[in-house]
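Hi all, long-time lurker, first post. I run a small reading group and we've been trying to get comfortable going from sequence to structure in the token notation. Rather than ask abstract questions, I figured I'd post a concrete chain and ask someone more experienced to write out its structure so we can walk through it together at our next meeting. Sequence below, copied exactly:
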Amino acid sequence: MLEFRIRYNAEKSHSEVDNYHYYMADSAIQALDFHNKMIKRKRIQMQTISVERYCKYSEKWFDESEVLKEHDKVD
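-- Answer (accepted) --
Happy to help. Here is the structure in token form:
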């Protein structure tokens, strides 16, 4: 399992403030899927901005946001 963080922006009234949700998942697609299910379950309106994967060896976050584009094609 890998650690992912998803940066999101909550609603229009909080457009200046970005927040993060963290997920343990096998892939960026799975982390995004967990995130989307949570949004639907809690009936939250938010804008997903990016998906990043954490590398514990380099202690850096790597951009995996291409899954957002792929996910939009599927919907």
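A couple of things your group might point at:
The chain is about 30% helix and 40% strand.
The chain has a mean pLDDT of 90.
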